[in-house]
Hints:
Blueprint lengths: L8 E2 H9 L1 H8 L8 H19 L5 E2 L5 H13 L4 E8 L2 E11 L2 E7 L9 H14 L4 E9 L11 H4 E5 L1 H5 L4 H13 L21 H5 L13 H9 L16 H12 L3 E2 L1 H9 L5 E9 L15 E10 L5 E7 L6 H11 L6 E3 L2 H14 L4 H9 L1 E3 L2 H4 L3 E2 L9 H9 L11 H13 L6 H28 L1
Parallel strand pairs: 1-4, 2-3, 5-6, 9-12, 12-13
Antiparallel strand pairs: 3-4, 4-5, 6-7, 8-14, 9-10, 10-11
The protein binds iron/sulfur cluster (SF4).
Amino acid sequence: MINNKMTLLTKSKYLNGLQCPRLLWYANKKLLPEVSLSDQHKFDQGHDFEEYVKKLYPDSVDLNGLDFKENIDKTKEAVQSNKTIFEAGFMVDNLFVRSDLVIPTEDGWDLFEIKSTTSVKPQHIPDLAFQKHVLQKSGLKVNKCYLIYINNEYVKNGEINPKDLIIQEEVTEKVDLVVDIESNAKKFLETISQEQTPDICISMQCNKPYECPLKKECWSTLPENNVLQLTNWRVYWKLLEEGVEDINDIPKGTKLAAKDQIIIEAIRENKPILSKEHIKHFLKSLNYPLYHFDFETFDTAVPIFDNSRPYQKMAFQYSLHIEQKDGSVEHREFLSDEGDPRPALLEQMKKDLKGTGDIIVFNKSFEISVMKQLAEDFPEHKEWLLQAVDRIVDLADPFRAFYYYNKSQKGSYSIKKVLPAITGKSYDELEIGNGGDASMMYFYSHIRQKLENKDEIRQNLLKYCGLDTEGMILIMGKLKEL
Ligand code: SF4
């Protein structure tokens, strides 16, 4: 008899419990913060991929969308008829799972977990182990366990053949090595039935295997200048384990990297720490005119446009500020409308980047990888794109090397921290304030038309990307002043 009020440990809660008891407790009480647009995007990507897996089993039963009780009843019927089942539901002893795919074989049932990743990850194994445990306890003999994930070497060319997109890997041996399911399940059921919130225990688990949605809340208890701002994570987790939270409390004699000593010095001296010689050397090495450049991209698990791969960064926008030696500046920009953004972007970019001056970016690995991928996908543009790659100079370098550090950067050298720290200007007043939001806003207004205020979004995207390159000029100006 199924009682809707009974305490259930589902697969996702079991995995929450493995990460942290507090996360499990909040998830069970449905108290987690609202899912962000980018998290929703990740779920949607998984769902899109599953639809391609389903195409490989046209005779299967799909129990997706059924409520809890109906799902369990229909699963029983389908199991008795020896059917291949998507979203089969099993419940035993307050444990409940919905398995992505189960297939009957002569030696029992093969169990499949579908993930929109591009390899098997360590966290996938306990996920399958918990499912296998529940299936076996409810009387189903599980034969082999598999992970189905995305082939990241797949290149779309016309209609997608699911066989080319999908990789299936057997992981039965690894799953069978997981032995602590029964005891964990007992412990987690106790956690979700307790009245009190479990104590905060900030640790590496806050980021592993997933960034915890409660981080903002739990980490807000840390002091303003806390050891998690240091660059050497082995040192900072060790300090935290020893109860040292505040940078000012780090015991004398603790071995610290040179960059961490700069972080501490900036806090103790209460002023920015800089190496003028290194900054001067960096500025002297630049070749004018300077092309301050920044891309915005989106990506999807299943490629949408021909000649692209799973999770490929698809550039849809750029901003360019061209700065002459005399200080005069010209702004150029590109923002795609609907369809594959790359052909029109490349045509305009080729004209805009024409010249010989340095192309200034912030964190060059991203821009370089996008340009190299464009060169591979559009060989007719390869020559000038690779020449452009050779002109790239990374404005993040002086900050990565801590030639300038302000304590308000909180250990980070991202442009979102450096710009306000060095110029006082920030992204806070913009409607779109980071690359993740820009990507989602563009994707859901131009590629998947779910958002209606497209014109407004375009204006906000132009403002956001424009500030990235304008910000680079401002940062450069401050470095010159220093
Ligand atoms: S942020 Fe860390 S301590 Fe807080 S619930 Fe998440 S994993 Fe647990």
